[in-house]
Design goal:
Helix content is about 55%, strand content about 0%. By secondary structure, the chain is mainly alpha-helical. The protein has a domain of about 25 residues. It starts with 8 loop residues before the first helix and ends in a 7-residue tail after the last helix.
Length: about 40
């Protein structure tokens, strides 16, 4: 029997990675705030 969570790293990066966040305005807001780490 397989466990329920089968992580797919490529899909995760596409959804939650740096470039995905660049498309929205999350990164720019964080850059304005002066964050050291912008995304994971």
């Amino acid at each position: 029997m397989k466990r329920t969570y089968q992580p797919n790293n490529r899909r995760k990066k596409k959804k939650l990675g740096f470039m995905a966040r660049m498309k929205t305005n999350i990164i720019s807001k964080r850059r304005k705030k002066g964050r050291k780490v912008l995304s994971k």
